[in-house]
Specification:
115 residues, alpha+beta, 3 strands, 40% helix, 15% strand, elongated
Amino acid sequence: MLDDKDQPLTEADKVMIFKLATASLPRRYGDAIEAEMSDEELSNALHSVLGIFGGSCGPGRPSISFAGSGLRIWGGWHIVNHVTEKPLFAGKATVAMARTVYKINDPDNKQMNLF
């Protein structure tokens, strides 16, 4: 599947890429996730998990690159170029995706969770 640059990412692909890039978040911050995390706390945790720069790829898996600086995550079914391509997630979008994927409540949000 790699090198098929024309294959678009599905929403499920994007979630998978996000989970692969942030896989250590629930392991390292599980207690904090259960207790609720503010945007600043979650941003700091994501920065730590993503590190300076990293990535992965393999047969049947998307190519992924990530950087703690800017909370950026790139991914695709081709070898991603973090210099020329726009990240799938960056900044507040990364924090929002972490809240959705890992069901992290924000103590500053007084709206009741409906689900």
